[in-house]
Amino acid sequence: MRRLTFAECIARLRQRLAGPLPGIAAHLQMAPAYRQSPDQLRVEGKPCREAGVLALLFPEQDDPYLLLVARPAHLKDHGGQIGFPGGRREQGETLQETALREAYEELGLPPERIDVLGALTPLYIPVSNYCVHPFVGCIASLPELRPCPEEVEAVLRIPLTALLDPTNRRRERWMIRGQAVMVPFFAIQHYRIWGATAMMLAELLALLREETLMD
């Protein structure tokens, strides 16, 4: 596809997020072998904990970049993995407010500067019993970040061109909970982005590619 400027990327996402979403059809592209059933991914009917996360886009020399975080290994839920800023919903707040609050608490991102473009399809994560609601936002320029060391080990600034490059989509057989499992992932820099984060990224990227996948 033609390389998009930051402004073009934001305009396309704003338009596509207002319409039907690729949803689980996109999630399945990056789902590990043990999560290939659509019913395993849907949040409907699951007595789960709710979480909100933020996929934040920002410009670097007019190219669109995405902000991700590496979690410390000691965390109970998803320790050592790559994810979006976000966390558990607190009483009395909307899920969008959760995503913005967590981005502020984890990275010091001011909520009033973030333009929320819309929401991606929620995703159920069995291992932590979370129903994750991803929101897509943008910011005109990335401020100096203040990562919370208890929740963020490293901040990743990922060019969207790297995520859109098909050569960065890989598959390997990993040992997970004592079983050999085929796992798709994004190989970016020296990180492997897999699991729920990769599945949500697959939907975001499908919107940029103008794919027509639907549930």
UniProtKB/TrEMBL annotation:
Superkingdom of the source species: Bacteria
Species in which this protein is naturally found: Rhodothermus profundi
Xref: SUPFAM superfamilies: Nudix (SSF55811)
Cofactors: Mn(2+); Mg(2+)
Protein name: NUDIX domain-containing protein
Keywords on record: Hydrolase, Magnesium, Manganese, Metal-binding
Nudix hydrolase domain location: 48-183
Molecular function terms, GO-annotated: coenzyme A diphosphatase activity; metal ion binding
Coiled-coil residues: none
One Pfam assignment: NUDIX
CDD domains: NUDIX_CoAse_Nudt7 (cd03426)
